[in-house]
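Recap slide: histidine kinase, sequence and predicted structure.
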Amino acid sequence: MASKYGYLLLILTFWYIVPVSHATEQDSLSTVYLQAKQEAALFVKSFGKNVTFQHQLDSLEAKVQSADGIRNGAYYIQFAKKYIKHAEVIDSILLVAEKRLRASNCQRGLGEAVFYKGVRALDAQKVEEALGIFKEAAHIFKLANSPEGEVYCITRVANYYSKSRNYQLAEKYYNELLKRTEELGDVNLSEMAYLNVANFYNQQGKTDEAISYYSVLEKSLEKSNNKKRYKPLYNNLGVIYIYKKDWAKAKEYLHKSIAIKQEEGDSLGIFSSYQNLFRISVQTRQLDEAAFYSSLMTDLAQKLNIPPDQMLAFNYNNTQYLILAGEPENALREFDEYVAVKDSINKAAFSDKLLQIEQDYEIEKRDQAIALLQQKDELQQEKLGNLKVIIAIVVVFVLILLFNGFYMKRQWMRLNEADKRLKEKQQQILTINKRLESLNSSKDRILSVIGHDLRGPVGGLKELVELYMELPELEPQDITNLLNTARESSSSAYYLLENLLTWANSQRGEITFKPLLTPILPVVTKTIELLDQSINSKGIRFDINIEASLSLKIDINMFRTIIRNLVSNSIKHSPHNSLIEISAEVIEEGVQFSVVDQGHGMTASEVQQLFSKKEAYYISSDVSAKGTGLGLILCKEFVERHGGNIWVQSEEGIGTRVYFVLPVAQAPFNPKVSKEIAYSNR
């Protein structure tokens, strides 16, 4: 027993340790990867702006030559992250990184490699492929206990649909993003989700929805103080309130944005915020403020390399200001500057279009070459198609032959099977004929015995009636004796006919089994009283040893038939003034009943044949004494219907003991039922 418990404990320990050890291993590998990731980020950042892409790629290959799989993957991923637009090179780099990290079983690094594969698929407009990749990446991040990775996957898909203006799908994924971040309870991830969702509604012009999420983000930032997100929050709120013409709030948020940009040294961002404030002052005709921002932005434009689109907006706003300020000459000069900037932007756009035309021409030439190759391929495919048709015809012909062969074989097997079943049916018919012959013989035999048994009591009754008619003036005692004899003869004939009717109904299946919890003693007592009055002319005494509290679940009519037949048999075979004992005893199998007489008994061979089969009735030369045997046959059937069994013990010259056992009822004794049963036996 101790060894069994020890074995069970060992299994449970192994079952617990394996997941824990796996999680510990993943945490350890994640730590190694994150350290390598920091080193790789510094390495990629160390390249100057003037270093060519190819030189950086060569430096990367030299760096990772001696690195292990995890460090190798980390360096490749950071390089791919920086140069994600270099399509073919980055695709191959990410493939190598994925292979190395998968071999190292580092789920955290593998998740990032697969994630950037998804980014590349989105850039290539392979949307369905990208969705499958991000789903795989999210699963890997989950294995690596990195919920932020799962969130980034969802965010990337939502942002893609937002940029491609598929707002319905974008909203679906943004809702999933909000739900996932709320489940995780990570403040940083929640703030990222709020910002992305607010930007999504802002993009659609749904300013009220955008403001609600920006407000939630602002409240969260008051606790987390994440300055990185204050800048886009304040800037976007400022722009929204400009569109809503709520100038006070617009200025408030724009000034907050400028303060953060000044801390970060974001000069271009500051110029952009001043641009919005300049626009507000022009719109509200606050010329002093407009003059201040015009001067300030002119100085910044001389110091910074302002993007053309920003300069174009400044020239436009400045032109409006100078017109309002009553300086038409300066306004005209500023407008000329506006036109010059716009022309330069258009020229740049035209150059881009020329470049695009050249690219389209190269693509067209390539498409023509591909078309020629496709024509050649179509000819080859046509030849191959003809060959396939010939092969298909041959295959179909072979299949038809095989099918015909299979069909013929199946028909042959069916004929053999039918012949076999026919022979079996013939054998069954022969067996049934023999059975019917045996049953017919048994029927003739039992009918002859029944006729013989009925002739005795009926003939005796006839002689008694004739004797009474011939001698009408008999003594009272003689009349009493004649009537007793007539009663005994008629009762014997009645019970014989009742057994015959019961047996016939049993053979036709018309007797239903209806068990009912019943007190046993009243049923036995009443049955014996009826027998004592009808056929007991030998002065036989009865000793009933049954507890008054004994109750069984029995079919009353079947049980009464069992007791009546067993006791009547004992009366027939018992000498005058003898004793018949009827008793019941509770044993392990149920309740054992016994009927014991002091008759002349039977031999062992006679006992063995009593219940051998229904047709083998025991009939000796003394037919009137032995009877048809139907009573015992009914007793056996009815006992078995109760789930019990019956047997006989007998010795010549000593007497016969008949035993039968019935299962014990599960329900308790009911006095009300006892009274009803006792009443029905009267």
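Confidence is low (pLDDT under 50) at residues 1-22, 613-626, 666-682.
The two ends are 65 Å apart (CA to CA).
(End of recap.)
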